[in-house]
Design goal:
The protein is mostly helical. 51% of the residues lie in helices and 0% in strands. The chain starts with 5 loop residues before the first helix and ends in a 5-residue tail after the last helix.
C-alpha cells in the first residue's frame, strides 16, 4: 500500500489510534510484527510444512487466482528502505514527523 498510495499511507498520521500510539511511544499500533507470521504459523500447525512451504503455497495460490504467468512477476513498485529515517521523512513526511520526530534541517 505504501508504494502504491504514499499519500493514503501518510494520511494515517491523522488517525486517532496512530496519534495516541505516537504520544505513548508505542509503535505496536503500526508495527505489530508478530501479526505478520500468524498465517505461516497456522499453516505449519495444520500441514506440518515449514515457512518455505507456506510461502510457495501462497505464491502458487495467488498466481493461480490472478492468472499470473510465473515467468512475469507483477511490478510491486519502487523498492525503498523502511528503516532509513531520511527516506521515510521524504516519502511519508507526516507519519515520519509524528513517529520519528522532527528531522535535522
Amino acid at each position: 500500500m505504501v508504494r502504491a498510495c504514499p499519500g493514503l499511507a501518510d494520511g494515517l498520521a491523522d488517525h486517532p489510534a496512530v496519534r495516541q500510539a505516537a504520544a505513548e511511544d508505542d509503535d505496536g499500533t503500526l508495527f505489530a510484527e508478530s501479526v505478520n507470521y500468524v498465517a505461516s504459523e497456522a499453516y505449519e500447525q495444520v500441514t506440518g510444512g515449514n515457512d518455505d512451504a507456506f510461502y510457495e503455497a501462497m505464491k502458487a495460490r495467488q498466481h493461480a487466482a490472478n492468472g499470473i504467468d510465473e515467468a512475469r512477476e507483477p511490478d510491486m513498485g519502487e523498492d525503498f528502505d523502511f528503516d532509513n529515517d531520511d527516506e521515510m521523512r521524504r516519502r511519508l513526511p507526516r507519519l515520519a514527523e509524528l513517529l520519528l520526530g522532527p528531522g535535522e534541517h
